[in-house]
Task: structure prediction
Amino acid sequence: MREFRNVIHHAAICGLLAVAALAQQAQPPLPVPSDSPKPAPESAAQAPTAHTATAAEGKATLYVYRHRRFEGAALKPSVYIDDRELARIENGRYFVAKIEPGKHSIRSNDKASGVEINMKAGTGYYIRVDMQTGFWKGHGRLTMILPEQGEYEVKQTRPANDDDLKDRELVVVNMQLQ
Result:
């Protein structure tokens, strides 16, 4: 009888922990303290478009984003272009990079997964990072997304933290979505 009570007790604790984890995921982000600078609110006029980069710049625009999900929330996989680390991508964040036209290989920390793109000046490209579970830890898996879908999904995320941006030459810091 005592063993049965222990099993019931442990099951109840596991159930409460699962409910608490789901409730935490459903909560909106905490408000920014009034003494710290507040980010500019995003409006519909600031929505990203595939035409953000202009041909006059002579570069392509790469949007890399990650949906906000419970699984793998603590992981921040790196994203590389031609084996050059651009940034680490946190849960529910995005970053933007200006890339020279031409063929480029983009991957995350999962070397078996990647995307090769022949980028054109003035064109926007969208890559979503999805977490794949692994034996010891998760890996970032990249998926090329159509511009219409990417524009919509990037609006659901926030800009990457400044300390996660690794290549300041390619990654555009504080770029507002257009």
Remarks:
- The first strand starts at residue 60 and ends at 65.
